[in-house]
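Aim 2, interim progress: modelling of the uridine-5'-diphosphate-bound target.
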Amino acid sequence: MSSQPIYKRVLLKVSGEALMGSQGFGIDVAVADRIADDIAQAVRMGVEVGLVVGGGNIFRGVAVASKGGDRVTGDHMGMLATVINALALATSLRKLDIEVVVLSAIAMPEICESFSQRRTLHHMAQGRVVIFAGGTGNPFFTTDSAGALRAAEIGAEAIFKGTQVDGIYSADPKKDPNATRFETLTHSEVLEKGLAVMDVAAVALARENAIPIIVFSIHEKGGFGAILTGGGRKTIVTD
Ligand code: UDP
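Predicted structure of the complex, ligand included:
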């Protein structure tokens, strides 16, 4: 394994849940700082990073819909939650002197810039980390789909999906001691086996655009950097 990155531009998807640590809700700043540390390491290696952050640690649209409320309003609330998380991660990155910009799919000019592909490419060319907030900007979607969408738009070589475990397993490794980790899978296998990696729309979009998905543990310090240089523990989903 060399210390040279084998990727030039990647899309990292961090779920909202990853940010809450052991709290059960909201943002644990120490956890956000630790994830930012790994992103900073990647930037210092010369990798261009686009970051999509979820909102599940604060709000999910289904929480409204399941109690008889309007799903679309619930999803708007969920998308706003992703903006809060994006601002938290931007703050953590700035503490490490990393240049970062938040681009939101929902216009809120007093708080951050609005997303456009052209703006994104401009910021990336300036060496900035771009954090994509607001998901796709549409209800009934997820931030996983936003991850696949933004990856295609910026020409990312891979989608890095940071999860609670270090790859895709044959069963839940926290419940089944016989669960084994897949080294590689195809997008079609993930869809056919119904493996809970990213939602179906996200995997289908990645497949259509031939973008590999790399599943790894977001909680392992240095794990992101190790994979960027060709090592680390992960599952690679590819054609
Ligand atoms: N959401 C949405 N459209 C999007 C992305 C997200 O409506 O394009 C809403 C949806 O309600 C979702 C919430 O935002 O439940 C938080 O996103 P997600 O569940 O993907 O977050 P994660 O599970 O990654 O924390």
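The chain has one domain: 9-238. The pocket of uridine-5'-diphosphate is lined by residues 15-17, 54-56, 60-61, 74-75, 78-79, 81-82, 135-136, 138-139, 141-144, 146 (CB under 6 Å).
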